[in-house]
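Subject: for your reference before the review

Hello V.,

The reviewers asked for a structural picture of the protein, and I figured it would be easier to keep everything in one thread rather than splitting it across files. Below is the amino acid sequence we used in the manuscript, unchanged from the supplementary table.
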Amino acid sequence: MAVTARSRRVKPAGGFELAAWYFMRISGLFLVFLALGHLCIMHLIHNVESINYNFVSDRWTNPRTGYIWRLWDLTMVNLAILHGFNGLRQILEEWINQAKSRVLLRTGIWIFAGALLLLGNYAILMFVKDADYLKNRRDAAADAVTVKAGVERSGSPRTRASVVVFDAQR
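And here is what came back from the structure prediction:
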């Protein structure tokens, strides 16, 4: 079976393409560890139902470890966006033959990637715990729906019982 020159992948000779080639390998390696750590922490160590606004706000605003979690999430978001859009750029470079189309697509890709980077970094770095929101949630849980239900017991008269229902999903 003959190997054609087009199907054989080699390391680029130099310049931007060589830097992008190295970036894809290094960022992919980091992303494997970051994503597996994220999976273990968020889905195996903690119960999925307990991950909500309060969980994230406590984690990011903790005075002892908050900066570590923010750095973890920043690194994961930034590497994932840059890794993914660089891969998309490389694919489009191979498949788009017209120079004008390639320039237009490259520009669109990097504008969209830049917007996602700004949005992700802004959300993580500028996060402030909303104490009013958390207080309102606690108050709503304390004032949970009280259901008055009739409880029948065999041989005893019908009694009224008050049952408090807490909605953890709200």
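For the response letter, the relevant points are probably these. The helical segments are 15-45, 53-61, 66-95, 99-125, 131-142. Strands lie at 146-151, 159-164.

Happy to draft the paragraph if you're swamped.

O.
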